[in-house]
Amino acid sequence: MTNTPLRITDTVLRDGHQSLLATRLRTEDMLPIAAKLDAVGYHSLEVWGGATFDSCLRFLNEDPWERLRALRRAFRRTKLQMLLRGQNVVGYRHYADDVVERFVVKAKENGIDIFRIFDALNDTRNMALAMRIARREGAHVQAALSYTISPLHSIDLYLKIAHELADLGADSICIKDMAGLISPYDAYELVRRLKAEIGLPVQLHSHYTSGMATAAMLKAAEAGVDVVDTAVSTLALASSQPPTETIVSILKGTPRDTGLDLALLADIARYFGEVRRKYRAFEGELVGVDTNVLTYQIPGGMISNLVSQLREQNAVDRLPEVLQEVPQVRQELGYPPLVTPTSQIVGTQAVLNVLLGERYKVIPKEVQAYVRGLYGRPPGPIDPATQRRIIGDEQPIQGRPADLLSPELPKARQEASEWAQSEEDVLSYALFPQVAREFFQRRAQGDVYEREIVAAISALLVKNEVEALAAVPVPPPPSAVPPPDALSPWKLAGRQKLGGGWPGPR
What is the pTM of this model? Predict the structure, then answer.
């Protein structure tokens, strides 16, 4: 075991609430605890990317760029980290190179220090541009291995991919275990070999879904992992990360002692415990451990999306059949790791196969695009019969998918000119045209600031009330807990109908 302290990246401001609260945590509930988070001494805080960008615009009536700027102002000591889906950026399709480049430039300019860049298929061609631009801009480039298990996926394969990422200029390697599939001993061996053969710092990201993540992180620590991802305890466990305090406590007094203050972490946990009560309406269904993930390799968030699709069709009782169908579809499509967007591609096709009573009777356009190679190179060959059923005699493309895309920013600038106030606005429009347009229209009407104004007025009223009561000998009763946020349920508007796309990201 190495004698260097294990570093911690806390995910409470991104993956923690994305996994447990459908990505609904508002900036106004992040900023009051920022000073204490900043004082902990984390390696970094994951605060942006993943589904947060879409959720800000679509559900929270917030500008994701303004969230990032506000967090950057609040965190003076701690590095800020984001999750970037390679050529997919923070969306669900490949974007042209000009969009990827300007997004990375502006993300760095607005406050991101560390870019964790991954591709759902581990196709390094889809990561290369974002990695190069982030490095050019002076950011830390963390290249991620999308970890899964299948007959094709082995430690040797992950080492091969890691060598490619190192050659592309990665500053560190992340093992991104989005479903909680990595076993403690596989974690030990993969970290050991990455450290010995690649020679770059290694970080482990895992979800608690299967119940193995804490043990996996401890074995990874024994193997020399440099950093692990955790979430403060009140937004940990289930489909989130292991609790920060647990890892800190276990390693206390050992050669890998994190040195973090448990009392300070307890204060932060109490804060998020109270905040979480405001978001009860968005709690996920998984409250403990789901070992089905080890059988079906389905992340917890993906199961929630499958349930959502089935509920739309009054067919939740068919979930066991869908869970059996997902591994079959995954095998026929070349064993893609199940992470956005491939989890939605495989999951939607599995639901259709079950509900329609005939496999591949209806094939969504995203599944067709995947088989055509427009998402990249699958880990293994697609079943020939399935390929013919989906695209006939057409041959999949062999090159980098983004090479087929023309620049997109000129059109986005023109179409968004009526509302866009900055280059960041143009990028938001390029990524999510309809959602961004609706957001810009609300902003123009002043609605985007309504919650902030209400919050400011409420704070002033509370301050005045407290001052007025200060001289009263009998203390006032405890404040009532605010009601749950009255937002619409977690789903992508207009995209939940079967055959019309896939459910929202988790």
Answer: 0.87
